[in-house]
Design goal:
This protein is an alpha/beta fold and about 80 residues long. It has helices spanning about 5-10, 25-40, 60-70; strands at about 1-5, 45-50, 75-80.
Length: about 80
Amino acid sequence: VYYICTLVNNQHRVELGAGWQQSPFNRALEFIAEKAKSNHSRQHDVVMLLDDEATPLKRKWCVFEAWRCTELKLKLRLFCKD
């Protein structure tokens, strides 16, 4: 199971909820973390696609997702065009 923010959240109109705990970013990551705990036979990762300038790392929600992956013990896979 992979979580790809671009495919999960409308990038032009993100509903953040009352706080970061209710944000779609956090809820999706927590869902994947729960699946990973209950099903060890399948891979549960998060994917971040980077351009030449690593633009996602300049966006606070992308940095938040990387931090939550660490907190939730999820593998974060970084990919670039090379």
